[in-house]
Amino acid sequence: MDETYDVRKEIYQRIRSNDYQVIVLGTGLTECILSGLLSVDGQKVLHIDRNDYYGAESASLNLTQLYKKFKDTEPPSELGRDRDYAIDLIPKFILASGELTKILVHTDVTRYLEFKQIAGSYVLRDRTVSKVPSTESEAVRSSLMGLFEKRRARNFFLFIQNYKDEDPSTHNGLNLDNDSMQTVYNKYGLEAGTQDFIGHAMALYLDDSYKQKPARETYERILLYTSSMARYGKSPYIYPLYGLGELPQAFARLSAIYGGTYMLDKPIDEIVTDSDGKFAGVRSGDETVKAKKVIGDPSYFMDVKGESRVKEIGKVVRAICLLKHPIPNTDNSDSAQLIIPQNQVGRKNDIYIAAVSSSHNVCAKDVYVAIVSTVVETSAPEAELLAAYKLLGPIHDKFVSVNPIYEPTTSGDQDNIFISRSFDATSHFETVVDDVKDIWKRVTAKELVLEKKTEPEINENN
Amino acid sequence: MSETQKPVQVKLVLLGEAAVGKSSVVLRFVQNDFQEYKEPTIGAAFLTQKCRLEDKVIKFEIWDTAGQERFRSLAPMYYRNALSAVVVYDITSSSSFDKAKSWVKELQRQASPNVIIALVGNKLDLVDGSHEEDEEGDDATATPTAGQEQSRAISRDEAQAYAEESNLLFFETSAKTGEGVVEVFTEIAKKIPLEQIVNSTKSRAQDQSQQNNVNLNSNQNQSKQVGDNCAC
């Protein structure tokens, strides 16, 4: 008998005998982190993707895949070799002191990845691109604020830095849980432009609704930003070599090493439920695999027994722009984040530009990849990006998509169907990790505790 | 200079059809001094082994497939920066030899152009007239034909000819008896262009664009990790 046959038979037997506890659908980052954590936790996981590549919406594509997906053509040969490209579909960076970094370190998947700093963070103010200061001396020299405003801002940051919950003398009469952020700004007499800078370039809010909410969250976001900035020095962000698509692959490998089974290129035709409406299994062709629970991205739950299990809560427009030069006015940085705060261009939501280049092994030499994105506000989404296009200089080629953002309509506690959220418009992965933790808790009925678990490494010198 | 004494890290990937003994070959190589060897459990798919070569030390960082090859689900990450590959087949199975050839093609497509590939025909013990049990330490997908003597399906000459024409190193091994296993790795080690790696690491460290590398596993705050990659 052919051995491959026997191996498959064994796995299919396992499938038929309902040996899997969790089926995971889609290999996006959220799903892969959960798959990895569940496998490490000892659960038997079957992980399926309808595509023949890892990453789903968070994949990085080579040139052929990119041109096929967006233009249905072959890539032009002048862009160079296919294999040199890994173009992210979602524009996000990793906050150096953020929650994703913690998961990467605690699961030890860092051994599969190499990271680099994003070289700089920039913000548009009064039609000028300015660097977000990364050191005190940069802050002193920065043209972002006038002299007196710098003094007021310094007092504000000293308050943030010294604030201790247990020491009322550091509170300066403010209560972070009751007073709004606007109240805090007013207390320090900060100008509107400085508020924009703090709320959008540091606390990374997409709109201004935070100002009317208790100041606590903004306070925490500023701390996260400054501690991320302090970690490596140039910007608060790090980025994996070869693109963000490496992240789901790394967690998938973690899952596989702990016994997870992977099947790519496997279409899912039906989410099967029992007579009580509880999850029973998934059907692909005439094959049904049973399990107790299912986790997956929204695209797999558009039709569960004739009903969609997700709802659209908004749209994000993204334009992947290939440039032959660094973004103008960013000090020739090989990578950058550029934030266009909504107030600066008469919008409700910020526009982000995320740029990486060949020094991150994501494109050929002398090519720069800038992804422009924002939350859609009008019926002409691409026109909303024009203010950002103007900052990019000549755009060599452009791939635009409008992406609905879905969230689940049910929590899974009734039917064991656990659905992740779409990737949102934020510039980092903090909300992705929030989703991971939330789903973990619903699936396992326990909090996610990140204990360092290392693969047994057999390491022998001779 | 201390650079020649510091082990040079070399990523080695294992490929081959399931149940040809990929894990066994590597575990035979790596476990040398291990007193109590346990079955390879899930979780053990990242092995390192140093290999001394005259005045240099190579540290093989060996990546097992972790079963991801089974449904064509091996991630591109697996091939990334692999300087060497061991493609294993079972000399009693012609389908495993065909599969090995397709893995070689896949490597030529996905891995770096200079990857050093060793073709390894395993289970030599099965055709040596020995009636021993099948190798222990095979992966979870145990060979269905355990304990039976097999007839050779792929002659040494045929495999050798293919290896020469494809520019591969070629060996026949028995992970069970250990025959030929160490040679696979020492011959690969000899072919690794060490000077080139050491030099390119140096020039990488000097290269402006490499200076933003960071090491997440470091506890040092506020320090730049110039040219120092993840502590794998």
From TrEMBL, chain A:
GO terms for cellular component: cytoplasm. InterPro entries: FAD/NAD-bd_sf, GDP_dissociation_inhibitor, RabGDI. Belongs to the Rab GDI family. One of its GO terms (biological process) is vesicle-mediated transport. This is Rab GDP dissociation inhibitor. One of its GO terms (molecular function) is Rab GDP-dissociation inhibitor activity. It holds the Pfam family GDI.
Automatic annotation (TrEMBL), chain B:
Keywords: Nucleotide-binding. SUPFAM superfamilies: P-loop containing nucleoside triphosphate hydrolases. PROSITE patterns: RAB, RAS, RHO. InterPro entries: P-loop_NTPase, Small_GTP-bd, Small_GTPase. SMART domains: RAB (SM00175), RAN (SM00176), RAS (SM00173), RHO (SM00174). Residues 129-151, 203-232 are annotated as: Disordered. It comes from the Eukaryota. GO terms for molecular function: GTP binding; GTPase activity. This is Uncharacterized protein. The lineage of its organism: Eukaryota, Fungi, Dikarya, Basidiomycota, Wallemiomycotina.
